[in-house]
Amino acid sequence: MIVVDIRSVDKTFNAGRTGEVTALTGIDLAIEPGEFVTLLGPSGCGKSTLLRLIGDLAAPTSGTVAVNGKPPGRARRDRDYGMVFQAPTLFDWRTVIRNVVLPLELAGRSRSEAQAKALEMLELVGLREFAGHHPWQLSGGMQQRVAIARALTFEPALLLMDEPLGALDEMTREKLQGELLRIWSETGTTVVFVTHSISEAVFLSNRVVVMSARPGRIVGIVPVELPYPRDINTREAPAYFAKVTEVRELLRGSEVASR
Amino acid sequence: MLAAMWELYKVAWQGAGWEWPVRPDDTSMPHVWSIVDALFEPARRGGDDLYGVILVRAAFATFREAVVGFLLGTVLGLALALLFLKSGLLRRGLMPYVVVSQTIPLIAIAPMVVIWVRGNGWPAWIGVAAISAYLTFFPVTVNLLRGLTSPSATSLELMRSYAATHTQVLMKLRLPASLPYLFTALKIGATASVVGALVGELPAGLQDGLGRALLNGAQYFITRPEQLYAAVLVAAALGLLFAGLVGLIERIVIPHRPHGAEAS
Amino acid sequence: MTDPGFVAPRSRFSRPQGDRTRSWGGNRATRLVPPLLVAVGVLALWELTITVFQIQEFLLPKPSTIVSTLFAELGVILRAAAFTLRSVLGGLLLGAGAGFLVALTTSRFSYVTEASVPLAAAINSTPIVALAPIANQWFGITDPLSKIFVVAVIVFFPVMINVTKGLISVEPSQLELLRSYAASPRQVVFKARLPNALPYLFNGLKVAASLSVIAAVVAEYFGGPREALGVYISQQAALFHFAEAWAAIVVASAIGLALFGFVTLAERLVMLVMPWQVAFREGE
Fold it and tell me: Closest residue of A to B180, CA-based?
């Protein structure tokens, strides 16, 4: 079954008033279970908006979005997806484990059940020993890992990530990219990932959705046939560079076209 | 250190023969040790109680009024903040008045409130507590509201992605996030309650309380200047202790963190 | 979707703060009308309740009574107000000026600042107005200096704390920039610290403005010349002449509001010359 089914979606802000912005036009996208799909494009291309449409944090002006065969609102209430933002958005007044427990707490799960699950997730991201720490005691990269653990507590079918590694330095980012792929393979979740980094998109995903701005639209979808698991060697393989170039050309071509 | 400066002033000014701004003689500025001595002597010749004991008892009376007012004011402030959070309309309508009320010296009605309360046959200390409550609720309302609306847009979206109800957002996000702001207000309120209590005690007739002690000290200044100073010091100590107490509670309730921006 | 808890996604037009987008915006009308309605409503209700229920005009006289009493006693009240105003202004100048200067000097050395701010905050948490009887003894009950002293001390601390915060909160990168230009310490103060401290100064002055009137009136409760607002209010209250007392309070509030308004006006004028970011955090 298709996990995310987007058909003919448009999104316009302030329609008909001053400051009208067409964020997205004519978006068609189908994502199969287990995929790692990246939305890639320059600022203003609507990639974050599209992600939020999937996550029911915004509604399309026209067209349909279905998550797991349901409307996004119901998928959200059924907790079918986990979301990770660019900022870790952890609660300062809670310890790490209490932060990870938050979604389960909100869903009314029992204390013991929630604790166990949270520890399991922290183990998955390799931060189990930090369960009792406070967020400000952790580095940016570690905080993001906690956010990822938190997003996975329901073992959702879908993981939505909005430039989660954007605020980190390059070394940490590359390390976390590796971590992310490991977690993805261990959990088998479907991932929709937003980024503006071409190399990141190619390294992580099996398909790159290239988008362009003015108006926001999909210019092309590039399959990335590099084998998993991917690591340092992948980053240095000629096939990788070729793919990056291919994506870059597509982006550049679309930029010219939209001028 | 303050005591050292006090004595230094006396010595220096006396030596130089200056009289401005304050005369350094022993009546206007008693020596520090005579002030301390006064605490351990009977208040009046032939009296039973040590002055220090009288002051402490008075401090307790004032403290009681201040605490009652403080708690009332905090509850009121909490209620208003939550109300304003719920209803933007109410907030727009009432907030300017909440703000303006800080400018209006409503503490100016302190004497009236107390006299009226007594005129009605109620114990006077209720009037005093009411003044303290009035002075506390304002900072609590303003700061708590600021704290309740402080969570970032991303945090709110996060809660939304968990399909959290409004109550859950309030209890698990807004309230915990507002605690630092609340305690800032509570510390201000603690001091304000003490001031309110003192001023409320001024109208003649309230026997207990530091306000009366201050007035008495002023009355008997010529013969026993040290008593007034001692009374003022005790009043200052009361304010300091109350604010310190709130600070202590804050340390316990909020995990201590190094200065820095919030992580979310 | 019209969920009110929801904030529009990032676009050029959205603001970074949480649901503060709710309290901003709306045009002038939505912001001014509700408070005006409340004012009119409260006054009307006040007047009607007392008239209709024939409540004794004791603690809370009708607004109309207060206004008429104000005009009847205008001379007395205004003369008292003049005295109090002198104390207020004197205290403000002295206290705010001293606060500013002390902040300027202590902010130069960080170890002094680290000690001075907590100390100031601690002293500020004491009932400073309790100094009033002592001031009366030192300077004389009827001497305005005794009231000026109290006002000055009360006003000193918020100004000093706020200005200190403003002076030391300059971004390190700005300081390093000036250092790379071999700027002298004086230049650093004038070109970086002072401009940065201006919003904090105005914050402190606003607090000072509202506090000063209260401080003067309350100080006068501890004793003062016959023609002073605080003395007038407490005397009238003791005589159960609440209407007169309220009238004087109205005048005192007006003075406080006017001072607050002056500071705000001054701030606006300065901002015309030196615009700075509106989004600064408020001091205590």
Answer: A93
Structural fold of domain C61-273: MetI-like fold (1.10.3720)
Using CA atoms, how far apart are residues A161 and C152, in angstroms rounded to an integer? 57
Would B247 be classed as within a structural domain? yes
**Per-residue confidence at B264, pLDDT binned at 50, 70, 90?**
very low
Nearest 5°: phi and psi at C18? -55, -130
Contacts of C131 (CB under 8 A, 6+ apart): B232, C149, C150, C153
Q: What is the pLDDT of residue B196?
A: 84
Q: Are A24 and A215 in contact (CB under 8 A)?
A: yes
How many domains does the structure of chain B reveal?
1
What SS3 class is residue C92? helix
Which residue does chain B place closest to C5, by CA atoms? B156
User: Helix, strand, coil shares of chain C as percentages rounded to 5?
Assistant: 75, 0, 25
Name every chain B residue with its beta carbon within 8 A of the beta carbon of C136: 218
* Partner-chain contact C59 B116, CB within 8 Å: yes
- Return the residue of B nearest to C6 by Cα: B157
The CATH architecture annotation of domain A33-60+69-80+168-259 reads 3-Layer(aba) Sandwich (3.40)
Domain with CATH 1.10.3720.10 in chain C: 61-273
Q: Is there a domain that residue B11 lies in?
A: no
Rg value, chain B, Cα:
23
pLDDT in tens, C250-283: 888 888 888 988 998 998 888 887 666 443 433 3
Instruction: Please tell me whether residue B25 adopts helix, strand or coil conformation.
Output: coil
Share of chain B above pLDDT 90, in %: 7
DSSP A227: P
Greatest extent of chain C over all pairs of C-alpha atoms, in Å: 76
Collapse the DSSP code of A212 into the 3-class scheme (helix H, G, I; strand E, B; otherwise coil) and give the result.
strand
User: CA of A223: how far to CAs of A37, C22, C122, C170, C199, in Å?
Assistant: 9, 43, 66, 50, 55
Instruction: Report ipTM for this prediction.
Output: 0.75
Tell me, yes or no, if C103 comes closer than 8 A to chain B by beta carbon. no
Domain contains B106: yes
- Intra-chain end-to-end CA distance of chain A, in Å: 38
**Cβ contact A13–C6 (<8 Å):** no
Expressed as residue numbers, the domain containing B173 is 29-253
Mean pLDDT score across all residues of chain C: 77
Other CB atoms closer than 10 Å to residue A259's CB: what's the count? 5
Residue A180's SS3 state is helix
Distance from CA of C25 to the nearest CA of B (A): 12
Q: How close, in Å, is residue B149 to chain C by CA atoms?
A: 7
What are the chain A neighbours of B168 within 8 Å (beta carbons)?
Answer: 106
Q: How far apart are the first and last CA of chain C?
A: 39
User: In terms of residues, how long is chain A?
Assistant: 259
* CA-based nearest distance A6→chain B, Å: 19
Tell if the CB–CB gap between A103 and B162 is shorter than 8 Å: yes
Rounded CA-CA distance C210/C200 in Å is 16
The CATH number given to whatever domain includes residue B79 is 1.10.3720.10
Q: Which of C1, C6, C11 sits opposite A13 (nearest CB)?
A: C11
d(CA B46, CA C107): 53
Token look-up 């609102």 returns: A73
CA atoms of C224 and C229, how far apart (whole Å): 9
**For strand A190-195 and strand A36-40, is the pairing parallel, antiparallel, or unpaired?**
parallel
> Is B23 part of any domain?
no
Parts of chain A belonging to CATH 3.40.50.300? 33-60+69-80+168-259
Contact A19 C9 (CB under 8 A): no
CA distances from A135 to A89, A146, B256, C198 (A): 10, 9, 12, 34
